[in-house]
Amino acid sequence: MTETVSRPTLEAVAARAGVSRATVSRVVNGGEGVREALVERVRRAVDELGYVPNQAARSLVTRRHDAVAVVIAEPETRVFADPFFALQLRGISKELTAHDSQLVLLLTEGPEDYARVGRYLAGGHVDGALVFSLHLDDPLPGLIRGAGVPTVFGGRPGWADGARGATPTVYVDSDNRGGARDAVRHLVGLGRTRIAHITGPLDQTSAVDRLDGFRDVMVDADPRLIVEGDFTPAGGERAMRALLDRCPEVDAVFAANDVSAAGALRVLRERGRRVPEDVAVVGFDDMLPVAEHSEPPLTTVRQDIEEMGRLMARLLLRGLERRADGQRGGRKPADAPTSVILPTTLVRRASA
């Protein structure tokens, strides 16, 4: 049996610090109006007694839960298999941890999952939401809007003008179109003339932007050299087989992400095509576990995925603080967070 140990109370901290219970409450819950000398006494008493604030009581005072929902609009089989999501979650987790906030992971796979996520967000369990991997017909934005939860999106949303509803949409993205142009220009610079593109799913804006970047350079590209993929290794394999069957003379491939490129490399080996001698290959992401360990190592467009996650969390926390400043009054609210588009760079390795 486990012996129950009584937890230090707010009253015990007040007695140790020689202040009122109300003063202790203001200090531990982040309130203002307490002299610095008293703040130090309360903090010293908290440390000596090992006092841990009651989260439910703290939420009543601060109107904060110190928890953020991270909503990924993909099934768990993809989320836990694709290193892109691990990198973005690591960036989010680091930023939230630095601000003593918890990450609550929510995944969507079917209609019942959307309803569950909508109920959870509307139930007031979290301070805000970080949402990424949206598809154009995704019901999540409507559910979030109905729940009234402050939100930052990963990736440019698909609705026009970057806004939907009364409040501006805040998002973090990479320069997908510019990065794609750099990839294709590199292939053109190598003297390649039959350059193909394996896209991502075209119901996602990142895939559309990369396709647009490809077309910016390959203005008169043969439509047969563009095959839709799905950002997965299997999708890259299927697309590469289709390309070789319809255009055997293809001499270069720009794949919309690294794992699709890895799938394409496997098919090229199966078909006896040398990389880069016969077919040059460029990916997008620069996920080191994929890019550096491909055979041959993958030339790719680098986007800072972990930094994207960190910035998403930072923008959300800044928006929450701004809202709190407005509720408290008497303080000038912080500047409203704005969307961020990060630059990309071409990383050259052996595949092109």
Identify the notable features of this structure and list them briefly.
alpha/beta, 6-stranded parallel sheet, 6-stranded mixed sheet, 14 helices, 12 strands
Summarize the structure.
The chain is of the alpha/beta class. Helix content is 45%, strand content 15%.
Report on this model:
- The protein has helices at 10-17, 21-28, 36-49, 55-62, 76-79, 83-98, 111-122, 140-147, 176-189, 205-217, 233-246, 258-270, 288-291, 305-328, and strands spanning 67-72, 102-107, 128-132, 151-154, 171-174, 195-199, 226-228, 252-255, 280-285, 299-302, 340-342, 345-347.
- The N and C termini lie far apart (64 Å).
- Helix 6 (83-98) runs parallel beside helix 14 (305-328) and helix 11 crosses helix 12 (258-270).
- The longest helix is centred in the C-terminal third of the chain and has 24 residues, at 305-328.
- By secondary structure, it is α/β, with parallel strands linked by helices.
- Strand 9 (280-285), helix 13 (288-291) and strand 10 form a beta-alpha-beta unit.
- It has 14 helices and twelve strands.
- The strands form two sheets. Strands 2-1-3-4-5-11 form a six-stranded parallel β-sheet, sandwiched between helices. A six-stranded mixed β-sheet has the order 7-6-8-9-10-12, sandwiched between helices.
Principal-axes geometry comes out as: elongated
Question: Class by helix and strand content?
Answer: alpha/beta
> How do the helices and strands follow one another from N- to C-terminus?
HHHHEHHEHEHEEHEHEHEHEHEHEE
**Total helical elements:** 14
- Gyration radius, to the nearest Å? 25 Å
Number of strands: 12
The mean pLDDT is 87
Strand content: 15-25%
The separation of the N and C termini measures: 64 Å
Task: Tell me the major beta sheet.
Answer: 6 strands, parallel
Biggest sheet: strand arrangement: 2-1-3-4-5-11
Give the proportion of residues in helices: 40-55%
Regions with pLDDT < 50 over 5+ consecutive residues?
none
